[in-house]
Amino acid sequence: MGDTGQFTVQRPFRLDDLAHAGTYVVDDRGRIVEVNSQAERLLRRKAGELVGRDAHDLLHRGERGEPLPRSRCVMREPLLTSDSAHGRDVWLERGDGSLVQIAWMVTPCRVGEAGSGALVLFHETGSAGLGERQRARPAPTMSELDRLALLAETTTTLTASLDVDETLRQLVRLVVPLLGDWAVVDLLTEEGEVTRAAVVHHENGVLAHRAELERPMPPLPRESTMPLARALRGVTAALVGPEDYEGRLQSRLAAVQCELFEATGIWTACTAPIRGVRDVVGAMTLGRSEQPQPYTTDDLLLVEDIARRAGLALDNARLYERQRRVAETMQRHLLPRLPSMPGLEMGACYVPAPRASQVGGDWYDAFILSDGAAGVVIGDVVGHDLDAASGMAQVCNMLRAYAGELQEPPSVIVDRLDQAVARMAETTMATVVFGRVEREDGRWRLRWTNAGHPPPLLVEGDGSTRYLDEASGLLLGTGFAPAREDAVVELPPRSTVLFYTDGLIESPSHSLDEGLDRLRRQAAALTRHPLSAYCDRLLTRVRPADNDDDVALLTLRIPG
User: Locate the PAS domain: which residues (predicted)?
Assistant: First the structure.
């Protein structure tokens, strides 16, 4: 322990040195980064099942095995405050679904050279098998404080994501097995069709999807009085059992619900509408097949409240994904077909941001100017939404218009564009590189100016590289009037010029210089590949795995 009162976790120290205590280390996000062999034995989980997982979500449980709200977890407080603490009578879930009761100690530590985290030591004080827990526990009534804690965590957890699948996953994790052995979520599509998006069962301590039951559903009958149909129409929540689906069924939808009860063994259930801001999003059914207590009216009110909060989160996620699709479609339609110019090869590609992340305003453009030169553009409008995509369209079109009007140097055209952007109704800021590719006396030249954008990369035929970082100035839309400059470079035979947006090189896990160095190395290594494959290979090798931005690439090559 050093002067700061913290342990430092680094070699040659090993957690296996603490042989008599289960021990694991978490980073500043609460993810397990190392465990000792005694922890593996106590938790009945291999290290590979623990490392990289969120310790709270994976291990911490209430005394009945239910997921524990973070607000009630006594072991989380020292992680947040970086204090040491100890206690007992905490339950962790083992890999086989049983519980182990522990005494524990948490103390802050340094993880590696610069990271922070905590060292957790624990030993067993009691245990309960899965069957024993179910036989011994009383009816799973929840106190008012427990209900409020669950609802608060539901709101916090579900609003943290704008991805429908992730929202569903978190919803199921919150309610199973705390409120039931089964969770079934049926969603209404924008066209009014019903799809069974999730059928999840708590089995041996883990949540297992029953994929054979997740499928498109029959049409929603408008007059049916069956519980699921009423919930999907937003009528009411209801306590449900197999007896509700006995006898003559009113619709194919009811028949499928009857099959669900038979396949799962659910004998008591709650079905509640999932309501969005304006429309019904779907319905959630929680069921018990192993738990011995029937649902009560109090349970139904809680499930209805959870479903309402889930509806708001799903509605937001759907709205976001709809906006994202519109913006992405707009971008793709605005990106041009590359012109054909004798003696010059061009290639380009655009890749949208990963799923559930925000849409950017990246674009490229290439066109033949009135004097026969080629105009080339790469740009990025600041922002990550539909406004950014709309701003991109306006800036792109204005630049084309200015470039085609008069034979002016790139710096003059970009200066005029900057003044126009400053007058736009919506505040817009953008980075852009605009250049002219000219041929004179059999030699090719690139004349360009740069308004706050990452510099183009020149790769010569022998693999030598250099960034074209001259003629750099302020981005567009700042309201200032900077003096912009032009720069010129000769493009020798077999050389390639790469224009790109920052999504290709930026990452939260490494510096910008590292991204630029990686791009330089890979661009040189791939220079002998045909231009048709060049962009795709660069994206595969250079784009960071944790990148959350879209990427536009434009490449020029002078044939040998």
Answer: 24-60
Residues in Cβ contact with 347 at an 8 Å cutoff, skipping those fewer than 6 apart: 338, 531, 532, 534, 535, 553, 554, 555, 557
SS3 500: strand
Asked whether the beta carbons of 361 and 382 are under 8 A apart, the reply is: yes
> Which helix or strand (DSSP H or E) is residue 260 part of?
helix 252-264
- When comparing pLDDT for 213 and 389, which is higher? 213
Compute the distance between CA of residue 89 and CA of residue 124 in angstroms, rounded to an integer: 10
Give the residue-averaged pLDDT of 267-290.
93
CB 375 within 8 A of CB 367: yes
For residue 509, the model assigns a pLDDT of 83
Give the torsion sign (CA, 553, 554, 559, 560).
Answer: negative
pLDDT one-digit tens code per residue, 34-75: 999 999 989 999 998 899 888 888 898 887 777 777 767 888
| DSSP secondary structure of 18-33 | -TTSEEEEEETTSBEE
3-state SS track over 388-438: HHHHHHHHHHHHHHHHHHCCCCHHHHHHHHHHHHHCCCCCCCEEEEEEEEE
Task: Give the HSE-up count for residue 148: Cα atoms under 13 Å, Cβ half-sphere.
Answer: 3
Average pLDDT over residues 4-16: 46
Residues 6+ apart with CB under 8 A from 195: 186, 187, 189, 215, 216, 217
- Rounded to whole angstroms, the Cα distance separating 60 from 53 reads 12
> What type of residue is 231?
A
Average pLDDT over residues 342-356: 80
3: number of Cβ within 10 Å: 5
What is the rounded distance in angstroms from the CA atom of residue 73 to the CA atom of residue 526? 52
Distance CA 349, CA 366 (A): 12
The residue among 88, 94, 104, 91 whose CA lies nearest residue 63 is 91
Sequence letter at residue 30: G
d(CA 523, CA 510): 19
Confidence of residue 21 (pLDDT cuts 50, 70, 90): confident
* DSSP 8-class letter at 161: -
pLDDT score of 90 more than 50: yes
